[in-house]
């Protein structure tokens, strides 16, 4: 885990210096930390925003570096009630919390909102690279700091004993053109399939392919997964990978503390109620990964938010108001005459 611990502690040191969740935040403003514009997290965020808008509310969808930033933002960033985080990040945060006060402080008050879906570990590489072992001595992009891709890639390289000649802190969206240009040999990307980066990236199957991940050590740590053939235009055949669960996180707001906590708890409860009661709508109209969401699959070692439990209580009534209808503006006399004359000639 040579990459994981230094990044984690540097990030925690920076964030812990800011202090706990600010109390001067704007009451009633809700936001969710997601990921890059080409990822699955941001599409899930937009689906949830659409759900809230149908209830007369809104949810600001914020792009981010990924899982670690999202986790810490839930605790630290003003008006940030939600963040999507990978379960391996949660697991290792819990593991290190027992021996490091900074990590223990960082996870204080952070709670589960809902378990979401499995996201596959994609490693796109040159066609002559057959598997993870062949990344030894190569140039490999592993994501940017504070991203789940960075953390998962670092763990996988450590667990398999793979030692690239160079690991580069490059976001997947930037890594793809570098791979095409021959500047790197492969790059990691943890995202729920189908990830738009691959679906729309015009990837030449004669030059590049996704590496199979069948290492027994990794399959013991992560969930085995299979990408169906044709998931991406360049990938006609099924491929075995591993996956990690995405989890929607929130904060343990105390409605009796102040108006910000009260408004945030109400917003968390409202979204929880909507997710539970309109999950069929999300599965029918949202990202395809909603179809595999198992709301009962809670990661071990973490508690569900009190405000979430309040929202999914059968007796809870979400604060919903129908969006205001568009107001029609009466025509002026000039506009009315225009419409009348147009209709007289061409029909209306």
TrEMBL record:
Gene3D superfamilies: Periplasmic binding protein-like II. Keywords: Signal. InterPro entries: TRAP_TAXI. The keyword ATP-binding does not apply. Residues 1-25 form the signal peptide. Pfam families: NMT1_3. The keyword Cell wall biogenesis/degradation does not apply. It comes from the Bacteria. PANTHER family: SLL1037 PROTEIN. This is NMT1/THI5 like protein. It comes from Paracoccus haematequi.
């Amino acid at each position: 885990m040579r990459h994981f611990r230094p990044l984690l502690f540097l990030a925690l040191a920076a964030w812990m210096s800011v202090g706990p969740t600010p109390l001067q935040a704007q009451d009633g403003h809700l936001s969710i930390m997601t990921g890059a514009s080409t990822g699955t997290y941001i599409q899930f965020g937009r689906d949830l925003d659409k759900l809230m808008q149908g209830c007369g509310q809104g949810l600001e969808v914020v792009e981010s570096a990924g899982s670690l930033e999202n986790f810490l933002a839930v605790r630290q960033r003003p008006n940030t009630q939600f963040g999507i985080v990978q379960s391996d990040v949660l697991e290792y945060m819990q593991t290190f919390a027992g021996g490091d006060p900074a990590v223990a402080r960082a996870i204080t008050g952070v709670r589960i909102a809902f378990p979401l879906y499995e996201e596959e570990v994609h490693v796109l590489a040159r066609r002559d690279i057959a598997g993870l072992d062949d990344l030894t001595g190569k140039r490999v992009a592993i994501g940017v700091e504070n991203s789940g891709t960075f953390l998962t890639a670092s763990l996988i390289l450590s667990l398999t004993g793979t030692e690239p000649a160079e690991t580069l802190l490059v976001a997947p969206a930037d890594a793809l053109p570098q791979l095409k240009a021959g500047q790197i040999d492969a790059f990691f990307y943890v995202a729920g399939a189908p990830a738009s980066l691959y679906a729309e990236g015009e990837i030449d199957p004669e030059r590049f392919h996704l590496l199979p991940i069948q290492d027994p050590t990794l399959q013991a740590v992560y969930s085995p997964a299979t990408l169906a053939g044709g998931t991406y235009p360049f990938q006609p055949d099924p491929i075995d990978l591993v996956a990690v669960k995405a989890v929607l996180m929130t904060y343990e707001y105390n409605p009796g503390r102040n108006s910000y906590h009260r408004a945030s708890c109400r917003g968390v409860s409202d979204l929880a109620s909507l997710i539970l009661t309109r999950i069929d709508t999300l599965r029918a109209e949202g990202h395809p990964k909603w179809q595999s969401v198992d709301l009962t699959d809670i990661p071990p070692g973490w508690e569900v938010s009190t405000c979430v439990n309040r929202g999914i209580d059968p007796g809870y009534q979400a604060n919903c108001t129908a969006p205001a209808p568009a107001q029609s503006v009466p025509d002026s006399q000039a506009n009315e005459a225009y419409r009348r004359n147009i209709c007289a000639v061409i029909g209306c």
